[in-house]
């Protein structure tokens, strides 16, 4: 036995000898990717870029159900624990965004790819660099539109352990300087991005131009409309506020970029003769003809639950929450009639008597096709099935209508017909519409899309041609150019209006067009901000139908022997769950800067009203 | 074996006892109260509107303690004893005074007046009912000479909380013809939904262009019957 141990020990000694070969210690790690490996392998770089694209910021975007219910387009009708969205005022930090972590990651990548990426071809390297600079410009745009001028950091900030942190304390740039930086970056990289043309999920030449179109329009309207306020919001150093004299230049830059995109390979999606369904398909069917830049989703790898959150009550395929977004009456009424008249719904006549309609959907007849494509209203269909919306019955007694509702959804009235439909609406109820409307736009109609097991894969549109047309229209209108009218009419023609439906433009027409075309696409909050009318539209007045999310309930008339029996009437209501009118204060035009940022960098100037 | 159990129980109870030591802080007991004043007179503000901030040095995490105001300009806050710094937030109907800190040494219940400089004040206000109208008569005084008047408004409401947000009637006064320091009047029809109440409330609000909030007169209760 002893011999055996001896032999064993000698064997071990022998094997240890082989450790003298140094390369054993210098093998490539199987679990760590080095900087040299990363920046010389296009596949690895693309997968890193996927991470950056996935971190592109938005406020109410990328299927943020909750955020979409915090403005005047909708209220929250999901679980009660989130009813705060119907009972709040925009806080001082609402919309605060200060993501220097992402900026630092991008700056680090840009420095490393230039220093280490020797094996990449020049074309590969310039494309990757351009994409990262595009993402950085996108992030700076998101910061400037919420915070005003922010520190422009374009290289890594590295502490030298000298005990003096002042070189790391970058002061805020002027608001206009940040917009100028975005413009300059995009102009420099747009040619390099042309290699991605035709790809909707990575930045290409037209994506850069679209961002330019949007950012320059924001800068221009802040320059113009901030200066028109009774007391412009500004700081003495220009961190907030852009001089009015810069407006024309910014509008020109925006219009030039928009025109380049419009002249490009894209076209408004217009294949379905049913204009309402066409508008819904435009986002739901992922057409690359209109959408310039999107965040895509795929079954099995990356999905979202927007459809689970918002599918109409009676068509849920899962067992829990649904129907969280209840679109508002003011949004529905902002869709014009096809004859060009204002979209106010005709629920009562001049004498204050209810107008009766034969079918539930008749009150919405002859409306802008985008209404069908955006919201679900009584009498319409979803997934080719009729929706079952009816708030209750209106019983005619003693000379007036008594509006009654069933305690359960889908209950029958004493006459054996529907009392309250399976889809409600029902006041003060959970997971069913509280306003009389459901969301259709971006709610997928794919099989099992509303289950949590499968989920939805329709994509999120960052930029699409419809917006670019409206950007061009607004910039051209502000510059007094005649082509503005044509851009708006093109967008309206796609929605079912006759050709050249408008003969003159006003600010209100353009603004209303943006509201209906781009509803729920994360535009309205920022649009009202840059036009400096948010504090007027959302003035917190409890009696103002624009600040309050109102609803429209449909009732079946019970009046035996009268010609109106079995017809439908509509009542405007204020949902009980909607507790407080939207209130946008002057302090909300620029979010407050976090206290720890102010503590760490004494050069940071506070925003006005904070 | 028995001693072993005893030791465990003793140790456990020790542990439990020590927990309570850290768990239960005393609640703050001292009250800091007061009101915002201009020339000794309290200023009316919007309910849930302007705020004050309290800060305390000497702790690693700095964050403000918000102090909310009642609509008559009064406030109160429950605090621990200590040194505080009181600042006036700029989102208000008075001049920004962000560098002008009031030091408060809180050792007992304290009442302080917080002086502010409003852009405008309202004085000599009277409200009378005549027929189906409420007539208001008041004087708007300019305090900050560089300020411009944006809005003068008469509000009627059915609750004591009546302001720019909570109101039933709002009537705008003519700003261009208003003379500072002279008697001005405004009148509002009592709408149908308020007509049959026993009493309603009326209030005047004034806003400077550079301010985000209104300064208000005290709320006046008016008997309708």
UniProtKB/TrEMBL annotation, chain A:
Annotated localization: Cell outer membrane
Top-level taxon: Bacteria
One cellular component term from this protein's GO annotations in UniProt: cell outer membrane
Residues passing through the membrane, by range: none
Annotated RagB/SusD domain residues: 290-609
Residue span(s) of domain SusD-like N-terminal: 69-216
Keywords, in A-Z order: Cell outer membrane, Membrane, Signal
InterPro entries recorded: SusD-like_N, SusD_RagB_dom, TPR-like_helical_dom_sf
Signal sequence residues: none
Family designation: Belongs to the SusD family.
Protein name: Putative outer membrane starch-binding protein
Origin species: Pedobacter duraquae
TrEMBL record, chain B:
Signal peptide: 1-22
Keywords: Signal
Residue ranges annotated for the DUF3823 domain, each copy included: 31-117, 120-221
Gene3D superfamilies per the UniProt record, alphabetical: 2.60.40.2060, Carboxypeptidase-like, regulatory domain
The organism's place on the tree of life at top rank: Bacteria
One Pfam family named in its UniProt record: DUF3823_C
PROSITE patterns membership: PROKAR_LIPOPROTEIN (PS51257)
Protein name: Uncharacterized protein DUF3823
